[in-house]
Amino acid sequence: MSDVPSDTLLLSPDEAARCLGLPRTRVYDLLRTGELRSSKIGRRRVITRVELDQFVARLTGDLPPKAPEAGANQTLWDRHREQQR
Fold this sequence. Notes:
Blueprint: E1 10-11, H1 13-20, H2 24-33, E2 39-41, E3 44-48, H3 49-60, H4 76-84
Antiparallel strand pairs: 1-3, 2-3
Helix pairs in contact: 1-2
């Protein structure tokens, strides 16, 4: 289980690796190839929680709908947390 709080919106590559259960070198490979997107804030490289959700959705084929629908902005992470309640 990840030690990163679930309400953290911006993650370092190391934190993203822990959330995904991947080695950090694999996350850096994904960033380098563009499979996982990131931004820089100052000198810090950050990955959004939404990007992690979208990355997992692309892997599983569970892509978000193209047309906005009620609840379409709800991320996979939010759905997962609701199911755990």
